[in-house]
Design brief:
Elements lengths: L21 E6 L12 H8 L17 E6 L5 E5 L12 H10 L7 E5 L12 H6 L4
Parallel strand pairs: 3-4
Antiparallel strand pairs: 1-4, 2-3
Length: 136
């Protein structure tokens, strides 16, 4: 994603083939003692600032985020997928998600875990995403 314009694509990454499942991105660090931990709604809003550059819908409404766990320490563990294992932005999109979540006040270390099970399908998209993509 180009900052300030979620619909402009970055230069295309060379196809590196399928990315392995597992922890693929990290951001942030320990939260200072006494700092209020971010609410899940705030983290979700951060996810909504990240777009797959090939699809004009954010990654959360696309249904790419499967699970978000926020620990009492403020650390966040996210399980997400991509539309396909060979996604051209597989090397950068998880880091963008980690960075977006880590930018939210009250977050500690953010760990992004990529999974391919269950595989992504358009059925996972929100109604807003389906409307945006004219998929009704």
């Amino acid at each position: 994603m180009i900052p300030g314009n979620p619909f402009m694509s970055p230069p295309m990454m060379p196809d590196m083939g399928p990315i392995e499942a597992g922890i693929v991105a990290r951001a942030g660090g320990p939260l200072d003692a006494g700092t209020a931990v971010a609410a899940e709604a705030e983290v979700i809003e951060a996810f909504r600032t990240v777009y797959d550059p090939e699809i004009p819908v954010n990654i959360y409404d696309l249904g790419l985020v499967y699970e978000t766990k926020i620990a009492d320490s403020g650390d966040i563990h996210v399980v997400m997928t991509l539309t396909t294992p060979g996604c051209p932005v597989a090397g950068i999109l998880p880091q963008q998600v980690a960075d977006a979540a880590a930018a939210v006040a009250g977050t500690g270390e953010v760990v992004i875990e990529l999974t391919w099970e269950p595989s992504w399908s358009p059925d996972l998209m929100t109604e807003d995403a389906r409307l945006a993509l004219d998929m009704f």
